[in-house]
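Hi support team,

I've been running sequence recovery on a batch of backbones for a student project. Most finish fine, but this one hangs at about 90% for roughly twenty minutes before it completes. I'm not sure whether the input is malformed or the queue is just slow. I've pasted the C-alpha cells below so you can try to reproduce it. Let me know if you need the job ID as well.

Thanks,
M.K.
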C-alpha cells in the first residue's frame, strides 16, 4: 500500500507538550456536549413547549450521530491528516452552538445536535490519534489508560456548571458556554498545535473497508466495544432519567440536579483511577469482582428505594454502579485501542463509534421500556445492563484466549 504526506502545518518539537495538554483538554468535549444541559432538560420542555421525550431526543440524536460519525471519520483522519479536519470541526461546532442558543425550533435544535455529533467525533478521534502518533510503548499505554479519567471531567464539571447556568440564565446559556469553550481551544490549537501524522493511507474505499472488516472480525475487539457501550449506557440512563426524577418526583431544583450529576461523574472518575491503578492485575479476576460488586449495588438500590423511597438511596448505590462502570470502561478502552496501533485513526473511530451507537440504542430502548419516574425503574435498568455485561465479558475472555493461541501459533 502506498502512503503519502499531508501538506499542512507540522507540529513543532517545542510545542509537543502543550499540544498534548490541549489534546487532553479536547477529550471531555463529548461529555460536556451531553452533560452540561442535563439540569436544563425539564426547563427546555417548559421554555420550548415540548414533551419530556422530545427533550431527551436531543441527547439520543447527538449520541447516534457522534457514534456513526466516528465509524468513518477515522479513515478520513488517516487519509487526510488530523489537524485541518479538527480545525474545521471546531469552527463549525462553535457556529452551531450559537444557532441553538438563538432558536425556539426543536427541529432546528435536532439538526444542530446531529451536527454537534459529527464535529465532536472529528475533534475527539483526531486527538486520540494524535496521542498514538506521538507516543509508543509504556508511555502510550499510560496515556490511553488516563483517557477515560480525563474524559470523566466532563460529566463531573459540566452538570454542576449547567445547573447554575439554567437557574441564572436559562437553558440556552449552556450552548453559549460550549461554543465559547470550543473557541478558546480553537485559538490555542492555531497557536501551538499542528499535524502529527507522518504518512497517510490513500483513501481507497475498498482497502479501508477491508481494514474495518478485519477489525470487526476480531471477536474480542468487537465484544470489547460492546462492553464499553454497556458501561457507558449505565451513565447515560441516569443522565436521561435523573433530572426528571429529581425535579419532578422529588420537586427539587436544577442546581440539586447538577450536584447529583457531579457526584456520579466523580464516581466514574474514581472507577477510572482504580482501573489505572490495577492495570497490571490479572484481567479476568478484577473484571469478575467488578461485575459482582455492581450487581450487588443495583440489587440493594432496588430494595432500599422500594422500602424508603429517598433520593440518598439512589445516589449512594448509583455511585457504586458508576464506579464499576468507569472501571470497566477504563480497562476495555485500553484493551481495544491497543489492538491495532498501525491504524490508530480507524481503530479509535471504530471503537468510539460503535460504542456510542450501542449507547444510543440501549439507553433510548431502556428509557422507553422503563420511563424516567423513580429509583425502581433506574435500578431495573442498571440490573439489565450489568447482567448483559457479565454475559458479554465471558465471551470476550473466551475469544481473546483463542486469538492469543492462534497468534502464538
Amino acid at each position: 500500500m502506498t502512503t503519502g504526506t499531508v501538506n499542512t502545518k507540522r507540529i513543532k518539537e517545542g510545542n509537543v507538550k502543550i499540544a498534548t495538554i490541549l489534546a487532553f483538554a479536547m477529550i471531555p468535549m463529548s461529555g460536556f456536549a451531553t452533560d452540561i444541559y442535563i439540569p436544563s432538560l425539564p426547563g427546555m420542555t417548559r421554555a420550548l413547549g415540548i414533551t419530556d421525550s422530545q427533550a431527551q431526543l436531543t441527547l439520543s440524536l447527538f449520541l447516534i450521530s457522534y457514534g456513526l460519525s466516528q465509524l468513518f471519520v477515522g479513515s478520513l483522519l488517516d487519509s487526510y491528516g488530523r489537524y485541518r479536519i479538527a480545525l474545521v470541526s471546531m469552527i463549525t461546532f462553535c457556529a452551531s452552538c450559537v444557532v441553538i442558543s438563538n432558536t425556539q425550533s426543536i427541529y432546528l435544535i435536532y439538526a444542530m445536535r446531529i451536527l454537534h455529533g459529527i464535529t465532536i467525533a472529528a475533534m475527539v478521534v483526531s486527538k486520540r490519534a494524535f496521542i498514538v502518533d506521538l507516543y509508543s510503548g509504556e508511555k502510550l499505554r499510560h496515556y490511553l489508560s488516563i483517557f477515560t479519567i480525563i474524559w470523566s471531567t466532563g460529566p463531573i464539571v459540566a452538570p454542576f456548571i449547567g445547573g447554575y447556568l439554567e437557574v441564572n440564565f436559562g437553558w440556552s446559556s449552556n450552548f453559549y458556554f460550549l461554543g465559547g469553550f470550543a473557541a478558546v481551544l480553537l485559538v490555542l490549537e492555531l497557536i501551538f498545535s499542528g499535524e502529527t501524522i507522518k504518512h497517510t493511507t490513500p483513501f481507497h474505499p475498498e482497502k479501508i473497508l477491508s481494514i474495518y472488516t478485519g477489525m470487526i472480525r476480531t471477536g474480542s475487539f468487537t465484544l470489547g466495544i460492546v462492553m464499553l457501550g454497556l458501561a457507558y449506557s449505565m451513565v447515560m440512563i441516569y443522565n436521561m432519567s435523573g433530572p426528571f426524577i429529581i425535579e419532578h418526583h422529588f420537586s427539587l431544583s436544577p442546581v440539586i440536579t447538577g450536584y447529583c450529576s457531579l457526584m456520579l461523574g466523580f464516581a466514574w472518575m474514581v472507577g477510572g483511577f482504580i482501573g489505572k491503578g490495577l492495570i497490571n492485575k490479572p484481567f479476568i479476576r478484577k473484571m469478575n469482582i467488578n461485575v459482582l460488586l455492581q450487581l450487588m449495588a443495583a440489587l440493594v438500590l432496588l430494595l432500599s428505594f422500594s422500602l424508603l423511597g429517598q433520593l440518598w438511596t439512589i445516589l449512594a448505590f448509583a455511585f457504586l454502579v458508576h464506579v464499576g462502570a468507569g472501571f470497566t470502561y477504563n480497562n476495555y478502552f485500553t484493551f481495544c485501542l491497543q489492538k491495532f496501533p498501525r491504524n490508530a485513526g480507524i481503530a479509535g473511530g471504530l471503537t468510539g463509534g460503535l460504542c456510542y451507537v450501542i449507547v444510543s440504542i440501549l439507553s433510548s430502548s431502556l428509557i422507553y421500556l422503563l420511563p424516567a419516574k423513580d429509583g425502581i425503574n433506574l435500578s431495573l435498568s442498571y440490573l439489565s445492563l450489568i447482567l448483559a455485561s457479565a454475559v458479554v465479558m465471558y465471551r470476550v475472555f473466551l475469544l481473546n484466549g483463542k486469538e492469543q493461541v492462534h497468534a502464538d501459533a
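--
Follow-up from support: It reproduced on our side and the slowdown came from queue contention, not your input. Residues 13-195+202-408 form a domain with the Growth Hormone; Chain: A; fold (CATH 1.20.1250.20). No action needed from you.
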